[in-house]
Design brief:
Chain lengths: ~140, ~1500
């Protein structure tokens, strides 16, 4: 269950709305910074495949859509076509699926805030906390 | 013959050059087309010529291998010139040489296809020089010697070189399409880097064309087989020039021969032997052409060209093709015969042992199978290759297919992979004719086999190249991309980069283009290009990818791209682009860690500095500063201050300058100042406001601020550092443009200080003196305010346009700190230059453009975003004005409450013109006074000859009485009463004071003149910190500008410490017997409770001992008497001590009272007596009283200073209207409304007690200081508690006695009373005005008339003689201001009404005072005798007496106060109000009869 994770919610203009990185508790931020742009690059590139695959299934969870070197990209597309992407080094299908589902719920609640404009970056400590919590619960923990 | 495969490094360099060379011609801006993919717009170059170049180069340097024969030579053409001495011998020698080479050095280049290759002999004959007949005969010999088929006589150069020059216009260069253009060839490719390709058009079009082509080469792989082709068809040397046999590939020094004989554009021409033709002539005429300015083939006539074609055709058709046919036949015979044996043999063994798995067996070891040269498997391969070369693709495919199986069986992996590759290729080349599916899995297997088993990445690369082209042609772009990606490895950065780029392009070519994949792979490609040292390509790739990532908020990714672009641009010396890219990194909201940001910033500064120095050299932006991205300047937060800014008191100096207005002033502050200014203006009677001193975002900036020549303008700029890194700004200065206001015909010229030359700079500084801030450090994620001043020297229009500064970082600042401090103050070039070289700082600017408020007037304004103008930075500089500077000497920081100090105020005119009309107002008018003058005359500004009042210091704060202290008053009451005549010089509106410029000429303060005035200040009654605002107002004597007056602001912060508290209750004295003429009825008792509130505290100021030195009473009517003995030692109070002081007040004879005069009566407890009626005591009394009025009158303590109504009329002319009329009117009018007031005056006292005290105060430092002060107690009515602490009316008007419960109850608002109006009550009695008795407050109505009894206190009476009659004189005193009718009823004692409260108006709490001695008796033993009821009328203030007799039947002690007195003040007699009088009046009767 260890391994690093990078979670991003991508908006309709291919803009990241929310980003979060998870690393296993035992090995904290080592060589983190070198990888950060790579995470974004991989996630962004995977959008092509997400857009392609989202029409081929009824499921919101698309499983692993892309792979680059040691990174897998799992995806989840909401009803509003917000794309949740997860970069991960180890396969963890159920955990990621659960994580996506929980985050989807969190996101929907957040998006119902009338003061939140869709496709704008999410800046909420509560959202952060939830994301951290689910990350620990399903991904790194 | 020394041809060796090129060295590894050389190959690398060739490939790298091939890629690098192509860059410059392609990447022009706008060269690509704009394409839209979904929401992405992409500018794209569809072709990648660097890739094509690289591919060609790669195929050229690909070493030949034994496993295939495509690169091997099929034929060798020997050429001998006709003028050779022994042509036939030479031919033979050459042929032998070839054979020797093939046999002895099989591994040397060129490689030959098989034993016994085709030899072709060509006799070259020059038509001009040579001998025709000899050539013919030699040719005949040749034919007989070698055979007709393989000999040829080629006649060329029918035209001499001389004639050729004359007609060269007619003929195009026949070699032009094979030779490099001189411009290209000289470019940079050194002679060794061979194969600049033919100028073939782009690939795909050729592909379709060539499939039906009759040419012998395949186009798809044309470069690939160039070597083969070349060596096959042109193993040619000119025997005439070179004896030694040499191959083109082995002779790198002959550039023309490097040309690849690529297929002709015209297929038929190729068949006619064009290629060989050209090569021969080329070889022989090389030297000529070199001489003749690089025009080739000029000696050839059209017939010569025809002969060349014929030669080629002959060669191919008569010699090559038959030879190949023979060869194929032979090979296929060999193969079929061998195969039969081989097959049966091997398949049998296979069956027997049966352990051979099918398909390519993965085995780790390399192939161990080594075939002999003529092994049947190789023969099969040869056959396939030959068929392939001659476009028998179907046959080739089958052959390859068979060979593939064999090789697989033998686990000859290299051969296997080669066969697979060729099989799929030949199938592909069959085009749409074939039924078979294109077997791309063959190719994939080939690639992986090359890689895995034979460790031959180069062949894998070649296979990938061909395979991807095939896949692309088939539209299988995804597979092509995947194949490209598969070949990206760590081994070769250049290959990986190119392949990644190709893959990226494949992603774009998909049916649904994968733009994001494209961009990602372009990034990867760029990365690898960078590693491979191809900076231009790296930059190009990153730039391409940026189009996708731009403005999508993938900030870290974008940062990476920008950073790389910046780096590469910098390396390529595209400084401008580099700077722009680095700028991006800094401007955007960054998620980078601190260290990264610091690195970005350093890079940016470094690059930018280089850019600047480069531009400096170019002189392109002379005099203009570049705009910097950092720090972020919030233009709208800019503040403009027109005064010199807030000044702090310098420690150690006595002087405190007027503080002025600072940048930290808020809108409320400004409103406060504005109010004060309006107050002055209303007094002065001048409309218009002065320009506000501070312009911020919240002020109205529609109009330009007005500044004056010689006065500093301070601009505060807010800069924000978005990074986590510290920024250092140095040499910060304002940039401005100035339009001088010069009268004249010439249009004035705009002057700016945004110039770098010295002369102009100093000139600009002469016009506007601009300050320079040495260094400002902006910490990460911080705002910093930079204050910069300018002092204009000329009138005109000044516009602040921006901010100029040097931008640097922290580490660098330290390095350069020493240097910068050394440099002098100017920001001239000399100063900037050294810092340029010594540290990385760049000088730049940023604009300041504040935006006005958003407009909201029209519909357009509302729907769109329109902003109003903001002119706070467009200053209007006007002519000089006088400048008043106000300073205070020894302004205290803390005072005791009520403490009075005398300080000095200094007014200086710093300007160049006189000023006058000096006035001051304050938010706390009672805080200070300039005092009255001893003669008491008006202190107007027009009284110039006033003597300067003594600037008294303690103990002369107060003015003393004449030193009569020794002559103590004769009586107990050491009272000195001073009647102050009206006109005491009180200013009408005490909140605006004229400042007497007494010793100035005509009240004008001349330039440079300095006037000192004493000023008394008194600590506020309320302890705590007070902000006292002073606004000084003055007018220029002659004003050129529109501004008619100016102001000076001062805000003093003062801490007051609690000192004395006084509570005073005033009661009417009890009816006392024996006093003469009823005077006691006109007196009252002041019961004062003094308390020293100060507590002894260490390290804090406090009062150790407090001495009340004097009590004064100020009132129109009342004078103060002391009840106690004169005590010179004073009334002393230690800390937290309370002391009761009782004094007596006496009402003046009303007849003698002059309306409006105030009487100051003083009771001194000290040797010295203060003249209370003088300044400053009276001033402070007056101010305190006004405040008291304001507090009680307006019922709410909020408005500090409403003008009393009486002042309204007189306030316009301060000089004339003052004095008693005003005083009296105010006294009365503010009391209450007339009417009821006359009644209420019965309980109203309207007096003020002034307590003067002296205190031994301990300072913070522990020093003792004697201070003096005064407290005021304003007593309005009887029986109330008045306090020195100012409290609003709702609290101070509490009546009733001093019971604590009452206090608590009255703290709440008085309950609403609903009173039913009687229908028969007077109609004209307005409810709120002169109310009837019903509505009158019982507190008042029961005290309208007081009375006292005078009688003998003790009396002996023989009761046996009967009733004792005591004569009692009842004195009645009307306290109200109205005539009242009094009814005295002796029949009813007040308590008889108790049982009937309906008729008793008074509250029932009156004590039931009966005869004290009568206990247990229900029958009252005292009766009034005689007159039982009397009615009399008392005028206002009148007193009257009644003689009564009381009869007592028994001895005892009696209270004679048992009669009822009713008062009515209206004609309605039924409205009788019982008066309350509680004090018993005792008479003791002794029975004298007992003794007798």
């Amino acid at each position: 269950m260890s391994g690093n994770y990078y979670f991003v919610i991508v908006g309709h203009q291919d803009n990241p709305v929310y980003e979060m990185e998870y690393s296993p508790p035992n090995k904290a931020n080592e060589k983190r910074d070198d990888h950060r742009h790579l995470n974004q690059f991989i996630a962004h590139a995977a959008l092509d495949l997400v857009d392609e695959q989202m029409w081929s299934t009824n499921n919101m969870y698309l499983k692993i859509v892309d792979k680059f070197n040691e990174w897998f990209v799992s995806a989840f597309v909401t009803a509003g076509r917000m794309r949740f992407l997860m970069l991960h080094e180890v396969k963890n299908e159920d955990g990621i699926k659960n994580f996506f589902t929980e985050m989807y719920e969190t996101y929907v609640k957040y998006a119902m805030n009338p003061f939140y404009e869709i496709n704008t970056p999410i800046k909420s400590s509560l959202f952060d906390k939830k994301a951290q919590f689910f990350g620990r619960k399903y991904l790194t923990g | 013959m020394a041809a060796q495969p090129p060295q590894q490094n050389a190959i690398k360099k060739q490939l790298s050059d091939a890629v690098g060379a192509t860059y410059g011609h392609i990447q022009e801006p706008g060269s690509g087309s704009m394409l839209s993919f979904g929401s992405y717009d992409l500018q794209l170059c569809s072709s990648t010529p660097w890739f094509d170049n690289w591919r060609d180069a790669f195929l050229h340097v690909l070493p030949a291998s034994d496993h295939e024969y495509l690169n091997h030579c099929l034929a060798c053409v020997f050429v001998v010139a006709s003028n050779n001495g022994d042509p036939l011998g030479t031919f033979t020698a050459l042929a032998n040489q070839q054979v020797t080479q093939q046999q002895q050095f099989p591994n040397k280049l060129p490689r030959w296809f098989c034993q016994g290759i085709l030899h072709y002999y060509v006799l070259l004959h020059d038509m001009v020089d040579g001998d025709q007949t000899r050539a013919d005969s030699i040719y005949q010999n040749m034919k007989s010697t070698f055979g007709v088929q393989i000999c040829h006589l080629l006649q060329v150069n029918s035209r001499s070189i001389n004639t050729a020059g004359s007609i060269k216009t007619a003929q195009p260069d026949p070699w032009s399409q094979f030779l490099l253009k001189p411009s290209q060839s000289t470019d940079e490719v050194d002679g060794e880097s061979l194969p600049i390709t033919d100028g073939s058009p782009s690939f795909p079009s050729r592909l379709s064309e060539m499939t039906q082509d009759q040419n012998q080469t395949t186009h798809l792989t044309d470069s690939l087989y160039d070597n083969m082709e070349e060596s096959g068809s042109s193993g040619i040397t000119s025997s005439s020039s070179v004896d030694q046999f040499s191959h083109p590939l082995a002779s790198p020094t002959t550039p023309p021969s490097r040309d690849t004989p690529s297929p002709d554009s015209d297929p038929t021409a190729a068949a006619s032997g064009y290629q060989g033709d050209y090569r021969t002539s080329n070889a022989s005429h090389y030297k000529w052409h070199e001489r003749t300015s690089k025009t080739h083939g000029q000696c050839l006539t059209p017939s010569d060209l025809d002969r060349l074609r014929i030669f080629m055709h002959e060669f191919v058709v008569r010699a090559l093709v038959p030879w190949v046919e023979r060869q194929m036949k032979m090979l296929s015979e060999q193969v079929t015969s061998r195969k039969a044996i081989h097959r049966s043999f091997f398949s049998a063994t296979k069956k027997w042992f049966g352990n051979k798995p099918q398909g390519p067996v993965p085995s780790s070891q390399n192939t161990t199978v080594v075939y002999t040269k003529d092994a049947p498997e190789l023969q099969l391969r040869r056959l396939g290759d030959l068929a392939f070369l001659f476009q028998m693709y179907d046959f080739a495919y089958h052959t390859y297919h068979t060979a593939k199986k064999d090789f697989n069986n033998d686990q000859a992996w290299l051969h296997f992979a080669g066969a697979l590759e060729m099989a799929s290729l030949s199938l592909f080349l069959q085009g749409p004719n074939t039924q078979k599916q294109y077997p791309h899995h063959y190719m994939e297997t080939a690639i992986s086999t090359y890689l895995a088993y034979s460790r031959n990445p180069q062949y894998a690369t070649r296979a990938t190249l061909t395979s991807t082209e095939a896949l692309k042609k088939k539209g299988m772009f995804n597979d092509a991309a995947m194949q490209f990606l598969k070949m990206t490895s760590e081994d070769s950065d250049l290959t990986s980069a190119l392949f990644l780029e190709q893959a990226a392009h494949c992603f774009l070519a998909l049916k649904t283009p994968m733009v994001r994949k494209y961009s990602f792979h372009m990034i990867l490609a760029g990365h690898r290009f960078n590693k491979a040292g191809q900076r231009k390509h790296s930059l190009r790739a990153y730039t391409q990818a940026l189009q996708i990532y731009k403005a999508r908020h993938w900030s870290i990714a974008e940062d990476h791209i920008h950073f790389t672009i910046g780096r590469q641009s910098f390396n390529l010396k595209h400084l401008e682009k580099a700077a722009a890219s680095f700028k991006h990194l800094l401007v955007q909201e960054s998620k980078q860690p601190t260290s990264q940001q610091a690195a970005f910033l350093r890079e940016y500064l470094f690059v930018y500095k280089q850019l600047l120095s480069q531009e400096d050299r170019d002189n392109s932006t002379y005099g203009q500063l570049p705009e910097l991205p950092l720090p972020i300047i919030d233009s709208n937060a800019t503040k403009v201050l027109l005064t010199s800014g807030k000044r702090q008191k310098e420690p150690g100096s006595r002087k405190t300058l007027a503080s002025g207005v600072g940048f930290d002033s808020h809108a409320e502050d400004m409103a406060k100042w504005e109010n004060l200014e309006e107050r002055i203006l209303s007094v002065v009677g001048r409309p218009g406001k002065s320009s506000p001193p501070l312009f911020t975002n919240s002020t109205d900036n529609q109009a330009s601020p007005v500044a004056f020549v010689g006065e500093a303008i301070t601009v505060e700029v807010q800069v924000e550092n978005p990074l986590h890194v510290m920024l250092v700004l140095s040499e910060v200065t304002l940039l401005w443009t100035f339009l001088p206001a010069i009268q004249g015909s010439d249009p004035p010229q705009v002057i700016s200080n945004e110039i770098t030359t010295n002369v102009k700079k100093s000139l600009a500084d002469e016009i506007i003196q601009t300050s320079v801030v040495k260094e400002v450090i902006v910490q990460g994620i911080q705002n910093e305010h930079i204050q910069l001043t300018m002092t204009p020297r000329q009138p005109g229009q000044l516009r602040v346009v921006g901010l100029a500064y040097n931008l640097g970082t922290s580490s660098l600042a330290q390095n350069s700190a020493g240097l910068q401090t050394d440099s002098n103050t100017g920001i001239t070039n000399q100063v900037v230059k050294p810092s340029y070289t010594s540290s990385v700082v760049v000088r730049g600017k940023q604009k300041l453009e504040p935006r006005g408020p958003r407009l909201n007037k029209t519909k357009e304004d509302r729907t769109q975003k329109h902003y109003g103008p903001d002119r706070r930075l467009d200053l209007l500089v006007q002519e000089e004005m006088p400048i008043l500077e106000v300073s205070f000497l020894d302004f205290p920081e803390s005072l005791l409450c009520g403490e009075v100090q005398c300080i000095e105020v200094e007014f200086t005119n710093k300007g160049k013109s006189p000023l006058h009309g000096l006035r001051v107002t304050s938010s706390h008018p009672r805080f200070f006074t300039f005092g009255l003058f001893p003669n008491g005359t008006n202190t107007t500004s027009t009284a110039p000859q006033q003597p300067q009042p003594p600037t008294a210091k303690y103990p002369f704060v107060y003015q003393m009485r004449a030193p009569h202290c020794g002559a103590i008053g004769p009586s107990l009451t050491s009272t000195v009463s001073t009647s102050i005549i009206g006109g005491s010089g009180y200013q009408p509106s005490a909140d605006v004071l004229n400042i007497p410029l007494s010793d100035c000429q005509e009240g004008q303060l001349m330039p440079g003149q300095e006037v000192k005035l004493p000023m008394w200040i008194r600590g506020d009654d309320i302890g705590g910190v007070h902000e006292v605002d002073f606004l000084f107002y003055y007018e220029p004597v002659k004003s050129l500008s529109t501004v008619k007056h100016r102001v000076v602001h001062h805000q003093a912060v003062l801490n007051t410490v609690e000192s004395l508290s006084v509570r005073t209750t005033v009661v009417r004295p009890a009816a006392s017997n024996g006093s003469s003429n009823g005077q006691e009825l006109n007196s009252c008792i002041f019961a004062c409770e003094l308390e020293n509130l100060s507590q002894v505290q260490v390290q804090r100021p406090h009062v150790q001992e407090l001495q009340v030195t004097q009590v004064s009473c100020v009132s129109p009517h009342w004078t103060l008497l002391s009840l106690g003995a004169k005590n010179n030692s004073g009334v002393r109070l230690g800390s937290r001590e309370t002391l009761q002081l009782v004094m007596k007040g006496l009402k003046q004879d009303q007849k003698t009272e002059t309306i409006g005069n105030l009487v100051f009566s003083e009771v001194a407890f000290d040797r010295d007596q203060v003249n209370t009626s003088c300044s400053p005591c009276s001033d402070f009394y007056w101010r305190s009283w006004l405040r008291h009025q304001a507090l009680t009158g307006s019922d709410c303590g909020n408005s500090d200073f409403p003008s009393p109504p009486g002042f309204g009329s007189g306030s316009n002319n301060p000089g004339a209207m003052r004095g008693k009329s005003i005083m009296s009117s105010s006294m009365i009018s503010t009391d209450a409304t007339p009417g009821s007031g006359t009644l209420e005056s019965a309980v109203y006292l309207k007096l003020t007690l002034v307590f003067l005290w002296k205190a031994w105060a301990v300072q913070e430092s522990g020093q003792m200081r004697i201070v003096v002060g005064q407290h005021h107690v304003h007593i309005n009515r009887l029986n109330t508690v008045a306090m020195s602490y100012p409290v609003p009316a709702s609290m101070s008007s509490l009546t009733s006695s001093s019971s604590g419960a009452a206090w608590a109850a009255k703290n709440t608002r008085p309950a609403l009373k609903f009173i039913r109006r009687d229908s028969n009550s007077k109609a004209d009695d307005s409810f709120g005005g002169t109310a009837g008795a019903n509505s009158l407050d019982p507190e008042i109505s029961t005290k309208l008339v007081s009375y006292s009894f005078s009688h003998a206190h003790q009396r002996s009476h023989p009761f046996d003689k009967g009733l004792c009659l005591v004569p009692v004189t009842l004195t009645l005193q009307n306290h109200s201001g109205k005539e009242v009718t009094v009814m005295v009823d002796t029949g009813k004692s007040p308590e008889s009404f108790v049982s009937n409260p309906g008729t008793v108006v008074a509250s029932p709490d009156s004590q039931s005072q009966q005869g004290l001695g009568v206990t247990g008796s229900t029958v009252p033993s005292m009766r009034w005798v005689g007159l039982t009821q009397a009615s009399l009328t008392l005028e206002k203030g009148q007193s009257s007496t009644l003689s009564l007799r009381a009869g007592m039947t028994r001895p005892g002690t009696y209270n004679v106060n048992c009669l009822s007195i009713f008062v009515t003040f209206s004609s309605d007699q039924s409205q009788m109000i019982l008066q309350r009088h509680s004090t018993p009046s005792i008479v003791t009767l002794v029975d004298s009869s007992a003794s007798s």
